[in-house]
Amino acid sequence: MRVNRLMEYCTHMIFQATICLFTLKKKLDKINLMANKILICDDDQIITDSLSEYLSAMDYEILAVNDGNGALNNFVSFNPDLVLLDIMMPNLNGLDVIKIIREKSQTPIIFLTAKVTVDDKILGFELGADDYITKPFSMRELLLRIQAILKRKSNVENDNFNKGNVSLSSSKRELKVNNNLIDLTKTEFDFLECFVKNYENVLSRDQLLEYTKYDYLESDDRVVDVHIKNLRKKLENYESDLKILTVRGLGYRAIYEENF
User: Fold this and answer.
1) Is there a single domain that holds both residue 142 and residue 205?
2) Is residue 16 part of a domain?
3) What are phi and psi of 167, to 5 degrees?
4) Fewer CB within 10 A of the terminal residue: the chain, N end or C end?
5) How confident is the prediction along the chain (260 residues), in pLDDT tens digits per residue?
6) What does residue 113 show for φ and ψ, rounded to 5 degrees?
7) Are 135 and 250 contained in the same domain?
8) Would 130 be classed as within a structural domain?
9) Is residue 236 part of a domain?
10) Quick check: is 12 in a domain?
């Protein structure tokens, strides 16, 4: 009897361990899918290989190219979160590359270069570089610089939401439509913030109220409808691209006019 119970206990523990491992794998897979992407551009193959190996081991998704044309040709399709860019390269150098990128994108760029004069660094920053590290450099130092820049980028993206003619700042609690500042109540702003953070997802009245921490009775769901009506009117008065649609029987969702 004791042996049977012990076997049952062991079987149960193995099953639980398997479930834990499966859950952990799913979480790791999700993290990998969300890995930041880094475009490396350097004509020194040893450097690109070393950087690719090191940063890949740090869970970044890497694309390495050896010249400026390769960086520009792959920039849009790869859509990197950060670029490591050498300055001294044949044909199209790093200064030329950053000028072209900055015409359409503010993706963070770190210059990797042997050019060490103050004037060189000033020129790099004037052209839009986010950081500048001279060769030879420590991989650890470079990693810390990358992490710091990506953290700042993430904080800005989480705080500000810009799409179409709509601009929302959570830290300032401001909504602008066509650069006009829109006066919103606390609850209206909270609802709008919830919509843009869950863009195109259907939100129930309960979800909206939970997000705003609104103190309400279960029978007072219509309070949401009143706030949504007022919010819609303010958005429409300024011809906002953002529209709040009613999803019958479910709640509301936010879309942009271009998606109609």
Assistant:
1) no
2) no
3) -135, 125
4) N
5) 555 555 554 444 554 554 444 444 444 444 444 579 999 999 999 999 999 999 999 999 999 999 999 999 999 899 899 999 999 998 899 999 999 999 888 889 999 988 767 788 888 888 889 899 989 899 999 999 999 889 877 766 667 788 888 889 888 889 999 889 999 888 899 999 999 888 889 999 888 888 876 555 444 567 889 899 999 999 999 999 999 999 998 999 998 875 44
6) -160, 160
7) no
8) yes
9) yes
10) no
For residues 78 and 142, membership in a common domain is answered with: yes
Dist CA 162 CA 76 (whole Å): 20
d(CA 245, CA 243): 6
Q: Which two tokens stand for residue 145?
A: 């610089």
Cis geometry, peptide bond prior to residue 136 (ω within 30 degrees of 0): yes
Q: What is the CATH number of the domain that holds 230?
A: 1.10.10.10
